[in-house]
Amino acid sequence: MNPDDNIDIGEISRFSTMAAIWWDPKGELKALHDINPVRLNYVDDRAVIAGKRVLDVGCGGGLLSEAMASRGARVTGIDMAEASLGVARAHMRESGFAIDYRQTTAETMADAAPATFDVVVCMELLEHVPRPASILNACGRLVKPGGDVFFATVNRTWLAHLLVIGASEYLLGIVRKGTHTFDKLVKPDELKKWGTEAGLSCIDLSGLRYIPLGGYAALCRSTAMNYMMHFRR
User: Fold this and answer.
1) d(CA 12, CA 93)
2) Structural contact between residues 194 and 208, judged by C-beta atoms closer than 8 angstroms
3) What's the pLDDT score for residue 73?
4) Cα–Cα dist 113/221, whole Å
5) 10-36, pLDDT tens digit by residue?
6) What's the pLDDT tens digit per position in 173-213?
7) Please, what are the domains in the chain?
8) pLDDT score of 99 more than 70
9) Average pLDDT over residues 106-119
10) How many other CB atoms are there within 10 angstroms of residue 211's CB atom?
11) What Gene Ontology molecular function terms does this protein carry (predicted)?
12) Which residues, other chains included, contact 55 with Cβ-Cβ below 8 Å and sequence gap of 6+?
């Protein structure tokens, strides 16, 4: 790996050890399964992805990539955890979808293929990289003029610290301990600023409410914990 890459080796190692459970809806990644329909609908309702070229940045085991492919999108998924990509490819073969999975970073791909995609999505990745603003810049370069870019992440608030980290990771144990680091969480104003600097216009900011014990997930007004943001180039 290039030492200049915008990656955290520890984060890649952590997600690599979880590769085998990516598609277990009752396992340590249950939260991703629960919120995936909300993420999918947010993107599809706003960008209508059928027939469009869509890039999934930080695709992991392919949960969202496959969901978008099921809506008719032509999906490319990128990630730096080869173990996760192996799971994504294996599940794709079982599901019958045609998704182009690649081990690369958003920055490297933006250099090689600028203005290639109609839609770019980046879900739950910004809080796991050293330089999240660099991801915004790369996504801005990857999307075509007039195209849509979507992010989902966790707000850096006391409530998120209490519930997303304290309760979910240490009290309830529904998320693996150490998954989130409070100082790396991203405030909406920061995300909006990085998007503006990347040539993107913020179209929408929506909160995402998630109740782990019942698996309930839905969009909401409050952005105090999880939230999603829609940009357009």
Assistant:
1) 24
2) no
3) 98
4) 36
5) 778 777 777 888 999 988 888 899 999
6) 556 565 667 778 999 999 999 999 999 999 999 999 988 77
7) 9-154+186-232 (3.40.50.150)
8) yes
9) 97
10) 10
11) 3-demethylubiquinol 3-O-methyltransferase activity; polyprenyldihydroxybenzoate methyltransferase activity
12) 75, 76, 77, 78, 109, 116, 117, 119, 120, 121, 142, 143
Asked if 207 and 152 count as a contact pair (C-beta separation under 8 A), the reply is no
Instruction: Provide the 3-class DSSP secondary structure of residue 11.
Output: helix
> CA 57, CA 77: separation in Å to the nearest integer?
6
What pLDDT is stored for residue 3 in this prediction? 39
What are the tokens at 67? 């969901």
Question: Is residue 56 within 8 Å of 85, Cβ to Cβ?
Answer: no
How many other C-beta atoms are found inside a 10 Å radius of the C-beta of residue 38? 19
Average pLDDT over residues 118-137: 96
Q: Which two tokens stand for residue 23?
A: 């598609």
The helix or strand, by DSSP H or E, that contains position 202, with its residue range, turns out to be strand 201-211
In this structure, is the dihedral angle defined by the CA atoms of residues 20, 3, 78 and 148, taken in order, positive or negative? positive
Degrees to nearest 5, angle at CA 29 with 60 and 103: 10
Residues in the chain: 233
Q: Which amino acid is at 219?
A: L
